[in-house]
Amino acid sequence: MIRAAARRRDVGEGGWPRRAPTPPWARWPAPLLLVTTCVVQLLTPKTLDLSFFLAAVPPLAALAYGPAATALLGGTVLLLLSLPNFDLGHPGESDTATVGFVALLSVLFSWVRSRRDAQLVTVRTVAEAAQFAVLPPLPERVGPVRCAGLYRAAQRGTLVGGDLFDVRRGPCGVRALVGDVQGHGLAAVGTVAALLGAFREAVLDQDDLEGVAARLDRRLVIDAGEADLHRRLVIDSEGSEGAAPGEPSELFATAVLLEFDDTARELRLVSCGHPPPLLLRGGAVTELEVPPGAPLGLGIAGVTPPEPVVVELRPDDWLLTVTDGVTEARDAAGDFYPLAERLPALFEAERGDPAAFTDAIWSDLVRFSGGVRDDVALLVFVVEEREAGPAAPDGLSAPTG
After folding, report:
1. DSSP E strands: which ranges in 15-56?
2. Are 79 and 123 in contact (CB under 8 A)?
3. CA angle, residues 41, 44, 46, in degrees to nearest 5
4. Would you tell me how many other CB atoms lie within 10 Å of the CB of residue 186?
5. Distance between CA atoms of 388 and 16, rounded to whole angstroms?
6. d(Cα 2, Cα 140) in Å, to the nearest integer?
7. pLDDT tens-digit map of 32-81
8. Strand boundaries in 19-172, DSSP class E
């Protein structure tokens, strides 16, 4: 797990190794059953025949071992059954032949399973590489700020879902994006990739955050139009009745955009329907007052751009941005997760490590809700001491147009 970076749920979480489809504990039943049966049989009266348990050894071996190891265990079983001096039960010729046939089938099954496992590992490796290309890990520092992120996809076995974040340094300072697209899981990954690509380009050639928001909005509008055209073509080609080909596709996302200047003295941010960031200063938590603009994808960001807010920052300020997978998580009683109320204690325990702070929030969220069923993204920024320059004022500045 990457420290001080975007840490995602491992594909192998839940006891399954990341690279091996077979869990380690699956290797123990076959040899353990073989040894246990032999020992118990030799220590019990001859009238008690337990040798039939050995017939299960080759199939168990086929679940965890390759063809060679399965054949070795199967041959060991046949050898033990055929040794007259060993006196392992009283199997007849038909019983021994049956065990031999089962052993041969187990070797065949093991060969097929091994080939499928190799294919699965290859596909999984390619999928992980593609998902990390969409949402790569964050560095510990970007420009004048430290940062740490945590990402948990709702769909098990995936690294990327419907949430997104990125931090990039450009000509205008350090810019960051935290967003949540419509839907979650693999169905939303295409939209996430499109937004991140548009954001990384806009960081370099847009003079302000309003322009960045307009670029992202245009990306979703174009994608929604293409999706609607594709849907109409499919409906026309299949001749479906009762569909509404003229109905536009819905494709939108909420997002908050942040911009730190080169000295991290000033933060500029805009919100496109996203929960506002939280400022942690001296142990106190303040929800920044950001006018909630329209979500991205409605085609109005370029006409009615979101209203920017400027916040003066001080050394040791921490800024936390989250997606609604955190704020809308509920406990058994249906109560929402009180993030702002629980942050001071979590911050006090992990204030020296941004990555540990995000881990603490995630652990507390899981304990509160009993299991999160939505995509979750957390992004933390830390403003450190600067060598020169006057101290920033204590208060937060008013919104600017």
Report:
1. none
2. no
3. 85
4. 16
5. 51
6. 10
7. 988 888 888 778 766 677 777 888 999 999 988 999 999 999 998 888 87
8. 141-142, 145-152, 163-170
